[in-house]
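In this supplementary section we document a worked example of the pipeline. Step one takes a protein sequence of length 62 as its only input; no multiple sequence alignment statistics are reported here. Step two produces a three-dimensional model, which step three serialises into structure tokens for compact storage. The input and output of this example are shown verbatim.
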Amino acid sequence: MRTPAELLAPVRPDEPWLLSAGAHRTAAGTALPARSWLVTRVTPGEDGTDPRLGEPLPPPAS
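The serialised model returned by step three reads:
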């Protein structure tokens, strides 16, 4: 399943990029909350670039 996401550039060049996806549902209908991941590496891929993600970051405090 595809969902819109944002690739956020760091404020400083020595900080990692961040991938953020909003809440969505899987093809099977399972609801998933919004999540963010640090991008650990980017390599060339078939359709442009292939980001490698670290573990999901904890959700923001509510």
